Structure formats: C-alpha cells, structure tokens
Please model this.
Amino acid sequence: MLPIISKSNQNKTAIISNGNSFSYDELRIASQEFASYLLGEKTDLSESRVAFMVTAGFDYVKTQWAIWQAGGVAVPLCTTHPLSSLQYVIEDTQAETIIVSPEFESILKDLAAEKNIRFIVLGQESQGIIKELPQLSSDRRAMILYTSGTTNLPKGVVTSHANIEAQVSTLVDAWEYSENDHILCILPLHHVHGIINVISCTLWAGGTVEFLPNFSADGVFNWIKKIANSGVKGVFMAVPTIYFKLIAHFETLDESTQKALTENMKTFRLMVSGSAALPVSVMEKWEGISGHRLLERYGMTEIGMAISNPYHRERRAGHIGQALKGVSVRLVDEQNEEVAIGEAGEIQIKGANVFQEYWLKPESTENTFTEDGWFKTGDVAVLDDGYYKILGRSSIDIIKSGGYKISALEIEEVLRTHPNINDCSVVGIDNEEWGELVVAAIISDDKDLNTDALNKWIREKMPSYKVPRKYKLVDELPRNAMGKVTKNDLKKMF
Model:
C-alpha cells in the first residue's frame, strides 16, 4: 500500500529527519533499492515476515516500503521493549529476516544467530541495483502489529494491503489531508496511530512528515513556531498524556511567550487526540491555549479508525463522534442484540478497514467475530444525540458493583474537575460483598489530600453507588507506550 508518486510531487519533500530532507523520488528509489536487496535471488518474498527495529525517520519509512514492495509482511518492533518482548514477536511471527538500525544491532544480533534468521544492519547492505519487483494483489498480507496484551499474551493483528488502503483513504477523505500538510511524528511506530494516521495518510496525500527523535515539550513548541512561519498547513497528532505534558510546560512560560505560541498554533489546520480517552479537562485547557478544539476519534489495532468527530462540524467533548464513511457501527447487548438509542452496548464494527485475522490464532479470530461478520471490539458506548460516547472497555472500564454497571471513565472525568487532582484512574477490584469495589488512584500535588473531604465533594456530583470506596495517592500511573493506563497493573497496587 504505497502512495502514487507523480511527476508533480517527485521533487517535493516527503520526509524530514535528523536535520535532513528527502524528496518523494529519493524515498521511492531508496525503498526500491532496498526491496531489491531484500529479494536477493528471489522474485517475491511471498508474505515472508520481516521484523524491523528501526529508528523513526527516513530509514523507517524506506524499510517499511521496501518490505511491502518485495512482497513481505512488515513486522515493526518497539524500540523500547525489552529483549524478551522482542523475542516473543520475532518467534511468534516466525520472522525470516530481521532489520535493525546500527544502534540496535547488539540487542538482536545474538538472537538472530541463534535462530538462524537473516540479519541486516542498515548501512551495511549493498545499494544501487533495482530489480523487477513483484506485482501484489490487494488481499495479500501486508503487516502484523501486536496488541498490548493487557490480559493475555499479545496477539498479532494481520492487515492486508486492502485493509490498509481502506484505513488510509477513509481518513484522508474525512480529515482532508493534502499535499500542503506538514505533520510532526512523535508517536511510537509499532502502533496504528503513528503508522497509519501520521505517516501513511500524510504521504498518501503528498504532504511532509517530520520526525522528532526524542519527545520534549520545548522541541514540539519550537517545531510549531517554525511551521507557523513557513506558510504550510501544520497538522499535529498526539495522545492525551502528551497534551497533558505540553499544557504543563506551557504554564511555566512567561506571558509574552505564551501569547506568541498561541498565535503560532492558531495557524495550524488540524490537531487530533487519540489512542486513549481524552479527558474533557485536557480538551478544554488545550483549546484555551491553542485555539484548537481537539478532534477526538476512535480506533484500534484491528480496525484502524472507525469513528471520528467531524472535521467541519461540532467536535463534542467526551465523545468519539460518528461512524466514518464506509464503516458500519452498531451497539449490542450481551445477547448480541442491538440496543435502543440511548442504551449502552458493545461497539461492533464491519467494513473494509477491519483486519484479516489474528496471526496463527484461528480460535481467537473466530471468537472475536459474530456469525454475521461483525468485529467485537470489547468497548462499551452509548449513542448520545447522534454522537458515540465511550463508557469503557467491557472487561476493565465497566465495573460491576452491587448489581450496577458503572463506567470508570465517567468517574475519572468527575474526579479530574477537582482543583487538587492532576490526574486519576478508576478500576474495580474483586470484593466478596459487592462483586467489584470501585477504587481510584490519584495524582495530586497535595500529598495530604483529605480523602474524606474528597468523598463528600464527589457525592454531591454523582450517585453514591458510583463513588470510589478507596483512594490511593500515587506519584504516577502505570502506562504503556501509547500513554494508556495499564489498569491490570493498577489493580495490583490495591
């Protein structure tokens, strides 16, 4: 799934990384040369899995495109995962090739030798030869991404070239990407958010992707300042924790610097939040700082993006929006019957964007689809005046306590409005009397926060059965690479 590089954009900048700019033509030639090198004496990799641990930037995109053009299946590895996690993915996919940036050679070299896996260190391969590359049908496997594995071992999510094209083309249309877009990539590139929404959609539309190797609030704001004065259409996408950090840094700046940055950000075309629920408090603070009402959307590794707040119309706080064009959405109860409007139900998805299978897990694949082909997301939502509102994961965010089904996300939103609470997370823990007990972990600058007073405060804002029975003050919440709170780890703290 590659964009069409026309004569009109072949000299246009596709990627900026490490202070260097690369045109679309340079990217095309480099990826074709590397694809030819990957093929060797073969004419087609024939869906051979190629794992790659490559630094974000030109080399990452070149490698991904090369694997696809050679007929392989791209398996991006997380550059911060421990060896045991990397080994699991490499062994589970039965990867026949591993590609690494030089800085990661020592991590995977011995494993590759032990497993007799072809091992390629970027910069050491021969270049300059472009062979005839295979013609690929759209139904061939293109990529395997691994789910976070909060309850079981991570599963490999297999998407075809057709799946990826559907995910990309739908978003390009919905969010109006164009060749004038200039986007910053600061997200991990073993995840659908960075791979599809940031890189693939922007390059498909002929825009420019710039990479920031290490996240810093100063780095992001300096980039925003540069883009605002360059005449291009700035686009920024991040996860809620990044917006939280940017807000915290912005508040430390002097008033004149703040005003200048706000004017810079107002020149941007679009700002998006995803990968975790966006707290309403963060959305409102960012709007005050930037002049942008963040566009919140809903997606998963298995489906790309499926639901989104509209580009032009109202972006409703606390809601994920409406079904994207070409994506069917329904809400069902535990008997798999559609619920009435206004009632909570599991989100189920159908469309060309939905993944093919869980790698080598036919039973898991079968269990995650209904008999009539709907993908069961495990997320619970309600349709609220035409907009979907997420209540949480059925397995982790919907707490069953005293006969009630309680949304942890709803309680978190209320807690975050308390003046002494910086952030929080709510979970249910096993309890003999109640089934599950509602508990909350809280981050606060007030280390002597009076939880009795907090309890009294929250009882004035919601029914007593939703009020947390225990509170725990913590310095930070356990999170995965995309900033999502890992609630099973949080439960152990209680």
